[in-house]
Write a structure and sequence with these properties.
One of its GO terms (molecular function) is peroxidase activity. The chain is mostly helical. It is 48% helix and 6% strand. Helix 4 packs across helix 10.
Length: 484
């Protein structure tokens, strides 16, 4: 394998520290697209939105950039204006493309992360642009960027996400009246999600309305739900219910250093970007590895983030519909009063804990299906389709003693995680949640299958917008509807 392909992904603490001390510095990747992606990730790290909100924010950001860029491409069609804003071919310079997509990204991110506008302004200034230029003149790059971003934002402001709090007060708040069956102190039904009390705060299900959000390529959030295996019902199928809990306990009791590292590394991204953001770090690596042009980066990030956005809608639709129990609740229910083995040694079943940081324990939403698995499979499928093969060659070194669950103790030595293929990385992300005691086997494996289907489905729509039959294919002359 060449050095280029085996080069470590720079997901290191040093970059995070640099960004933390100098929030205006975005020095990732090799195009302006990756710089704006880093700006988005830093806003996510600071504001901590939930996973589906992260997926939507990244998809909108890269859609705004794509729509601005499309005005300067001879074939591509924008999602809102189609080819109505296309500029003459003599204007299709990198300078114009970079300026247009930067104005679009700035407009978009300022809307999505209003508390972080100063850092977006600083990046604009660093790039040589005036962040207060609000031109709507579509004969200019600034005008193209502002106008295309506004059109995408106007559409997405009313997509069912409740970003503006107009469906129920509070940005992204639930408007569907979800209420958990169980309480922090009572398991009223062992098939259903239980909010936990963590550090004095009772968990609240993040965005239970998300299945209603208008997708990118899917017809609806529940389009693929019927293809899912129904999760194990304690009353109807107690053996399957108990078996999946036993599998989680066996993982917990036999966690090696490497499995602990895998559980932690994938938990919420190297620096709290969450899985949707984590996969854009991998896309930055691909951009660097393959020496991408701006055109290639615009297309790759647009394709991948929209596939992951659809994955967020499908997975949260299932989470709300099945409202399924997490391993921590099922194990407490099944094993309270019994001595069981775990990563903590021998404990009472009522005291069993997943291998997670103390401030997490288990995520604040239902188990079935796995967000990590579906996000990762959709992203991996897209990167495979975009690059034309499954080769990844990414790796990361986890420093000795850097665990947040067992600080100073795990891992006992520097540990390298390496992924030959995108599929390997996605599969490791999926099983990491079983190592960590967050998901059952069906929640992982069903989600991996679904993610690949969602990735392919989104790719088909993406190609129609690129006006290509394949990534390196020929233009097709069919007309397509682009209402999303």
């Amino acid at each position: 394998m060449s050095n280029k392909n085996s080069k470590n992904i720079l997901l290191s603490a040093s970059i995070t520290a640099l960004l933390a001390t100098s929030p205006t510095v975005f020095a990732a990747g090799n195009t302006v697209v990756t710089q704006w992606n880093e700006a988005a990730l830093e806003a996510i790290r600071i504001t901590h939105p939930g996973p589906p909100i992260v997926a939507r924010a990244l998809a909108i950001t890269h859609t705004c950039m794509y729509d601005a860029w499309a005005a300067y491409d001879i074939k591509a069609k924008g999602t809102r204006y189609g080819n109505n804003l296309r500029r003459p071919s003599n204007e299709s310079t990198n300078t114009n493309k970079e300026k247009a997509l930067s104005f679009a990204a700035h407009e978009c991110l300022s809307d999505l992360f209003p508390t972080e506008v100063s850092s977006f302004n600083a990046l604009m200034t660093t790039l040589g642009y005036n962040p207060s230029d609000n031109s709507t003149d579509t004969t200019t790059p600034a005008g193209i960027g502002n106008v295309t971003a506004k059109a995408v934002l106007d559409f997405r402001h009313h997509d069912g996400s409740n970003q503006l709090g107009d469906l129920n007060p509070g940005a992204y708040s639930d408007y569907t009246g979800y209420s958990p069956v169980n309480t922090p102190t009572a398991i009223n039904n062992p098939n259903h999600w239980q909010p936990l009390e963590i550090n004095g705060n009772v968990q609240k299900f993040i965005t239970p309305h998300w299945g209603n959000v208008i997708p990118f390529a899917m017809k609806s959030g529940n389009q693929f739900r019927k293809t899912l295996l129904k999760p194990a019902d304690y009353f109807k199928d107690p053996e399957r219910y108990q078996l999946q809990a036993k599998q989680v306990l066996e993982y917990s009791a036999k966690l090696t250093d490497e499995k602990k590292v895998i559980a932690e590394y994938w938990a919420d991204g190297p620096a709290s970007e969450l899985p949707p953001g984590h996969w854009t770090l991998f896309a930055e690596y691909v951009s660097d590895r393959d020496h991408h042009t701006v055109d290639q980066d615009v297309k790759m990030f647009f394709a991948m983030t929209n596939a992951v956005f659809d994955a967020s809608i499908a997975s949260w639709d299932a989470k709300r519909f099945f409202d399924y129990v997490r391993p921590v609740t099922a194990i407490h229910f099944l094993y309270a009063g019994q001595q069981i083995e775990s990563w903590q040694g021998t404990v009472d079943g009522a005291d069993w804990k997943p291998y997670q940081a103390a401030n997490v324990v288990t995520p604040p939403f239902a188990e079935y299906i796995s967000g990590h698995s579906v996000f990762s499979a959709a992203a991996a499928e897209t990167l495979k389709l975009f690059t034309g093969n499954d080769n990844f060659g990414g790796s990361v070194t986890i420093a000795k003693g850097s665990s947040r669950v067992e600080p100073g103790l795990v891992p006992t030595n520097d540990t390298v995680l390496y992924w030959a293929t995108f599929s390997d990385a996605a599969d490791e992300a999926g099983i990491s949640r079983r190592f960590g005691g967050i998901h059952f086997i069906d929640g992982d494996l069903e989600s991996r299958k679904l993610g690949r289907v969602i990735g392919q489905n989104a790719w088909n729509k993406t190609l129609s917008l690129f006006n290509e039959e394949s990534h390196h294919g020929h233009s097709d002359d069919h007309s397509h509807s682009h209402d999303n």
